[in-house]
């Protein structure tokens, strides 16, 4: 099927990339200007900005509680943005929808960004918040401990799951990856989607290396499995995974290959490709009914949608 008509309308209005150097500060300011005002956000009973006190220092978090108690467990969310964009605000609506649809408390992580914070600072922040959350009984509530993220946040999900496994920490019950970026070599000979979806769908294959250059230049070697989780040789013993991919996403095939390799390693995995969708659809187009169901699918993966 063709790309969804609502996405096509937005894509047709975007300026053509001109190859100018990327300016993180300007791009972050542009993102911030697009965030809806508080009165337009999905209401929840309890949304609190706080800090996770970790060995690496305090990490900003935003905690979303859908009910008075965290009865169903916890989702720790890592936002996307090519490791240098994104914030608690840009992904606020995703966290709110996850809390409402799954009945889980959501902790969104304001990890340090490249290029100001070199690898592995952001990854260390995400992992530290997971370990911190285990000690917060009022958050965990005896239920699931899931980690979730989109795009580069999905990269952090896979890397955190691997770090936890190697550390002997088996408290993570689920990993949820929305159109993850899992191989930072961007090898067009390996992934057909890098060729088939190279242009015209919002995320350009030619732009992947420049967008990720801030992370790579900060010491994130693509051959490192914590940078490119698809390069990890043994995926056995990792938590059950839900992987959401988009039909018109250059990164589609690497997400689906991760699912295939997890299954081959004996890990329970569910892979869903959303027809007509492009990279970033959960962040930008989840208001479209066909795509909003991603939150219901996530709830089902976590054990079924609770009666809210």
Beta-sheet strand percentage?
15-25%
Mean model confidence by pLDDT:
94
Q: Give the helix/strand class.
A: alpha/beta
Instruction: Calculate Rg over CA atoms.
Output: 18 Å
Task: Name the overall outline.
Answer: globular
Number of helices: 11
Oligomeric nature of the chains:
single chain
Provide the low-confidence segments as ranges. none
What is the H/E string?
Answer: HHEEEHEHHEHEHHEHEHH
Helix content: 25-40%
Strand elements, count: 8
Reported for the largest beta sheet, the result is: 8 strands, mixed
Spatial strand arrangement across the major sheet: 1-2-4-3-5-6-7-8
First-last Cα distance: 35 Å
Provide structural commentary.
The protein is α/β, with parallel strands linked by helices and 308 residues long. Helix content is 36%, strand content 19%. A hairpin with a 2-residue loop joins strand 1 and strand 2. The longest helix has 15 residues, at 152-166. It is globular. It starts with a helix and ends in a 7-residue tail after the last helix.
Please tag this protein with its features.
308 residues; alpha/beta; 8-stranded mixed sheet; 8 strands
Put the structure in a nutshell.
The protein is an alpha/beta fold and 308 residues long. The protein has helices at 5-13, 24-33, 92-102, 121-134, 137-140, 152-166, 192-196, 205-217, 252-264, 281-284, 289-301; strands at 46-54, 57-65, 73-78, 105-109, 144-150, 174-178, 241-248, 269-278. Helix 6 links the parallel strand 5 and strand 6.
List the helices and strands and how they pair.
Elements: H1 5-13, H2 24-33, E1 46-54, E2 57-65, E3 73-78, H3 92-102, E4 105-109, H4 121-134, H5 137-140, E5 144-150, H6 152-166, E6 174-178, H7 192-196, H8 205-217, E7 241-248, H9 252-264, E8 269-278, H10 281-284, H11 289-301
Parallel strand pairs: 3-4, 3-5, 5-6, 6-7, 7-8
Antiparallel strand pairs: 1-2, 2-4
């Amino acid at each position: 099927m063709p790309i969804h008509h609502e996405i096509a309308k937005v894509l047709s209005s975007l300026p053509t990339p001109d190859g100018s150097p990327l300016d993180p500060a300007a791009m972050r300011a542009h993102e911030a200007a697009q965030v809806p005002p508080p009165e337009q956000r999905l209401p929840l009973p309890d949304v609190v900005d706080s800090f996770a006190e970790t060995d690496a220092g305090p990490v900003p978090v935003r905690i979303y509680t859908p009910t008075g108690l965290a009865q169903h467990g916890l989702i720790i969310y890592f936002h996307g943005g090519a490791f240098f964009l994104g914030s608690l605000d840009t992904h606020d609506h995703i966290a709110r929808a996850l809390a409402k649809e799954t009945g889980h408390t959501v902790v969104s992580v304001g990890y340090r960004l490249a290029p100001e914070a070199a690898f592995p600072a952001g990854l260390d922040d995400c992992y530290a918040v997971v370990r911190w959350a285990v000690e917060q009984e009022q958050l965990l509530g005896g239920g699931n401990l899931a980690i979730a993220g989109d795009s580069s946040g999905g990269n952090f999900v896979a890397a955190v799951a691997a770090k936890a496994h190697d550390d002997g920490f088996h408290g993570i019950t689920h990993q949820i990856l929305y159109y993850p970026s899992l191989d930072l070599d961007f090898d067009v000979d390996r992934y057909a989607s890098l060729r088939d979806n190279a242009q015209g769908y919002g995320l350009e294959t030619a732009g992947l290396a420049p967008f990720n250059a801030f992370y790579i230049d900060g010491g994130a070697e693509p051959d490192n499995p914590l940078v490119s989780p698809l390069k990890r040789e043994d995926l056995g013993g990792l938590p059950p995974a839900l992987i959401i991919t988009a039909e018109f996403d250059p990164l589609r095939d690497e997400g689906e290959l991760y699912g295939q390799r997890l299954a081959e390693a004996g890990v329970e995995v569910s892979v869903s490709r959303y027809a007509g969708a492009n990279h970033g659809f959960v962040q930008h187009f989840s208001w479209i009914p066909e795509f909003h169901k991603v939150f219901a699918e996530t709830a089902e993966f976590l054990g079924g949608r609770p009666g809210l």
